[in-house]
Amino acid sequence: MRAPATNLPVQFDQVEVVVGDIRILDGISHSFVPGPPTVLIGPNGSGKTTLLRAAMGLIKATRGRVTWAGSESMPPLRRAIVFQRPMMLRRSVAANMNYALRHAGVARAQWRARAEELLTLVGLQGLGERPARRLSGGEQQRLALARALARDPELLFLDEPTASLDPAATKAIEDIVLAVSARGIKVVMSTHDLGEARRLAGDVVLMHRGCIVESGPAAEFFADPRTQQARQFIAGELLV
Predict the structure, then answer these.
(1) pLDDT of 136-171, one tens digit each?
(2) pLDDT, the chain, mean
(3) How far are the Cα atoms of 48, 197, 204 from residue 192, in angstroms, in the given order?
(4) φ and ψ at 238, to 5 degrees?
(5) What helix, strand, coil percent values describe the chain, rounded to 5?
(6) How confident is the model at residue 240 (pLDDT cuts 50, 70, 90)?
């Protein structure tokens, strides 16, 4: 049985992230709550990756605060993140999984069964002995997802997980996202693909220039956007 969630909601209260003289996040106030996937959309440089990193706890707010279930110091034991270009260890698929399971604190006697379970979930069953760096791009992304799931996370952050993948590989990743969400894991992911956002999102967050321009249930966002920026973005126009 999954332990009760202790990370949610993730609350941003007037969060700014400033690096040098560049304000990457500007006054972000938003809550990530249990439920279907939240999808972050917006042009390059809008702050999506930085928001994910801050929600994971990898970046501290310059101003404002991020809290997990009301705490500013919640250890990231039940949170995981997969970056757009995940690093594969120079080892087999199985060894990559064992590394992740060891760092997740899983007992060594459980590694094989748990690795097989997770590799089956992501469609990589039978590939345990293959060198991880010889997998295709889509397979490497699926292995990265399996490694992240080794932490048994309550929260899973995905930074453009289907970028540069072909349609078949994209569908495989999207199927995993839906399967993970169905297990009660809160997924927060970024994407440039509006079609993907329509397929996956329970709610949508549109970002531009470090700010949240509009957010809300996906069906309402796409059917009746409230802001001019949202209407432009949905129409395929450039936000500058």
Answers:
(1) 999 999 999 999 999 999 999 999 999 989 999 999
(2) 95
(3) 10, 8, 12
(4) -80, 135
(5) 35, 25, 40
(6) confident
Residue type at position 215: S
Residue of 113, 166, 118 whose CA lies nearest to 142? 118
**Nearest one of 6, 19, 21 to 60, comparing CA atoms:** 19
Residue 159: beta bridge partners? Answer: 190
Q: 10-234, what's its fold? A: Rossmann fold (3.40.50)
**What's the token pair of residue 231?**
């209407």
Query: What is the phi/psi pair of residue 46, to 5°?
Result: -80, -15
Q: How far apart are CA 10 and CA 45, in angstroms?
A: 22
Q: Nearest-CA neighbor of 3 among 144, 182, 185, 156?
A: 185
Residue 104 has, within 13 A of its CA and on its CB side, a CA count of 24
User: Do residues 13 and 65 make contact, with C-beta atoms less than 8 angstroms apart?
Assistant: yes
Distance (Å) of CA 8 to CA 62, 97, 103, 187: 22, 27, 23, 12
Residue type, 73: S
Q: Quick one: which of 22, 5, 43, 10 has its CA closest to 190?
A: 43
- Whether the Cβ atoms of residue 50 and residue 105 lie closer than 8 Å to each other: no
pLDDT tens across 54-75, in order?
999 999 999 999 999 999 988 8
